[in-house]
């Protein structure tokens, strides 16, 4: 990947619960482009797994996103897709939610790092 392809990656994207999204939007990460595409997806109990998968695919294929944050409990719903994701950009980070603490045993990136170091 050339350095010119990195310079356009200037957004965070988030797939998360309402509290996580609200906090990050208040911090200023929200963006809606000229085609009305948002850089976040609010997931609640009614959100279909297919909707989460589609948002994950969309965010990981976009060229303007540098980091994709996803609540770990939501990543669990699409774990095979998350585990298959191997690209450096956008970087994928699993984050805790208010009601769901972070579990390092489930983190796909941490598992990959442990495998690399033979742990």
UniProtKB/TrEMBL annotation:
Location of the protein in the cell: Vacuole membrane
Keywords noted in UniProt: Hydrogen ion transport, Ion transport, Membrane, Transport, Vacuole
Main location: membrane
Any one GO MF annotation of this record: proton-transporting ATPase activity, rotational mechanism
GO CC terms, sorted: fungal-type vacuole membrane; proton-transporting V-type ATPase, V1 domain
Pfam family, one: ATP-synt_F
Lipid bilayer topology: Peripheral membrane protein
InterPro entries noted in UniProt: ATPase_V1-cplx_f_g_su (IPR008218), ATPase_V1-cplx_fsu_euk (IPR005772), ATPase_V1_fsu_sf (IPR036906)
Functional note: Subunit of the V1 complex of vacuolar(H+)-ATPase (V-ATPase), a multisubunit enzyme composed of a peripheral complex (V1) that hydrolyzes ATP and a membrane integral complex (V0) that translocates protons. V-ATPase is responsible for acidifying and maintaining the pH of intracellular compartments.
Family the UniProt entry places it in: Belongs to the V-ATPase F subunit family.
UniProt xrefs under PANTHER family: V-TYPE PROTON ATPASE SUBUNIT F (PTHR13861:SF2), VACUOLAR ATP SYNTHASE SUBUNIT F (PTHR13861)
Subunit record text: V-ATPase is a heteromultimeric enzyme composed of a peripheral catalytic V1 complex (components A to H) attached to an integral membrane V0 proton pore complex (components: a, c, c', c'', d, e, f and VOA1). V-ATPase is a heteromultimeric enzyme made up of two complexes: the ATP-hydrolytic V1 complex and the proton translocation V0 complex.
Protein name: V-type proton ATPase subunit F
Source organism of this protein record: Piloderma croceum (strain F 1598)
């Amino acid at each position: 990947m050339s350095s010119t392809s990195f310079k356009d990656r200037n957004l965070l994207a988030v797939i998360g619960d309402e509290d996580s999204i609200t906090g990050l939007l208040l911090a200023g990460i929200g963006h809606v482009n000229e085609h009305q595409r948002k850089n976040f997806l609010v997931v609640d109990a009614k959100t279909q797994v297919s909707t989460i998968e589609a948002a994950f695919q969309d965010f990981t294929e976009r060229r303007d996103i540098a980091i994709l944050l996803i609540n770990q409990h939501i990543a669990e719903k699409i774990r095979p897709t998350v585990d298959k994701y191997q690209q450096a950009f956008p970087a994928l980070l699993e984050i805790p939610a208010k009601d769901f603490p972070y579990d390092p045993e489930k983190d796909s990136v941490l598992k990959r790092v442990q495998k690399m170091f033979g742990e």
